[in-house]
Amino acid sequence: MRITQSRAILSAVLLTLIVLVAGPIPFANAQAPEPNAAESSVALPFIGEFEVWCTDRNPAPFNLCSRHHGSPAIDIGMEVGEPIYATGSGVVIEADAFCAGSGSCNNGAGNIVVIEHPDGTFSRYLHLDTVSVSVDQRVEVGHRLGTNGVTGHFSSAHLHYDEHFPIGQRVDLGVFVGCVDGGRVEYPTAFGFDDWNDVPFGSVMINDGFDCHGVSTPTPGELGRDVAPSIVAGLNSASASNGQLGERHASLLEAFGAHLRNLLSLGIIE
Predict the structure, then answer these.
(1) pLDDT, position 224
(2) 270 assigned to some structural domain
(3) What is the span of the domain harbouring residue 211?
(4) Rg value, the chain, Cα
C-alpha cells in the first residue's frame, strides 16, 4: 500500500530536517587539486535502492541542503545494519570501530573506514555501526567494509561518503556506476545532471551488485544485516523505489514526527 503524495512530501521534509539538524561534519574544505589519474572509486557503496539526501547544496525542501557539508560529499539515506561496500580497490588506512551512539566521537565521524586508492584518492565511509576490515588490509571493489549505523554526529541513519585528494581535502565525487539489469548506470547523469549539487533530495540510486565491475556479487546470505544492540531502532531511514517513497516510510513517519517534535520542544529548531 502506497502512502499519499502529501504524506510523501511530509516524509521528505522530516527526513531532511532530521539529517540537517546535526549539521556538517567538520573537515578541511580548502580547494583541492584534481586526482592524478583516472578515478579509482566509481562503484556505489551499497546493494539495493537508496535515496540521495544532502550533497553540498542540492535542491531540498526549504533549501535545507544549502551548504550542508560546505564541500563535496553525499549523504545516502539507509537503514541501520545495511552492508557497506568499497567503491574501489585499495588499501585500508583507517578502520575505527570504537564509537557508540551520537556525539563528537572521532570528531563527529563516528565509526569510519578510509581507503587509499591507486589514483591517489581516498574514500571515506562515516557513521558506521560495525567495521569488518582492518588497517593495511587490501580490498577490491565491492569488498564488504561493515554496516551502516548511527555513530558520531548524526540525527538519523545515513551513510556519509566523501573522497579526498590528498587526505584532508575533499574533491568532487565524480561518477558513481550502478550495475543494473546486467548493464551500467552512471550517476548523476542518470538523473539528467552533471553536478551532484543539482540532484534533488530523494532521488533514488540503484545497484544490483558489482558484476559490471568484474566482481562477483555477494550471495543473499552474505547480505544479512548486522545490527548492534546499541543502535536505536527508531532512527532508521527508508529507501524509495521508482521515484516514489516506499512502504517503509509510512511505518517510520510517526517516529520521525516524534523526533522532530522533541527537537522543537528543546528549541533546537524553530
Answers:
(1) 53
(2) no
(3) 5-265
(4) 17
C-alpha cell at 31: 580547494
Average pLDDT, the chain: 77
- 235: in domain: yes
pLDDT per position as a tens digit, 221-231: 555 544 343 33
> How many domains is the chain built from?
1
In CATH, what number is assigned to the domain containing residue 217? 2.70.70.10
**How confident is the model over 103-129, as a mean pLDDT?**
96
- Using one digit for the tens of pLDDT, what is the confidence trace for 134-154? 999 999 999 999 999 999 988
Residue 83 lies in a domain: yes
Which of 194-213 are b and which e, b meaning 16 or more Cβ less than 10 Å from the residue's Cβ?
A: eebbebebbbbbbbbbbebb
- Tell me the pTM: 0.73
Q: Angle, nearest 10°, between helix axes 5-21 and 247-265?
A: 50
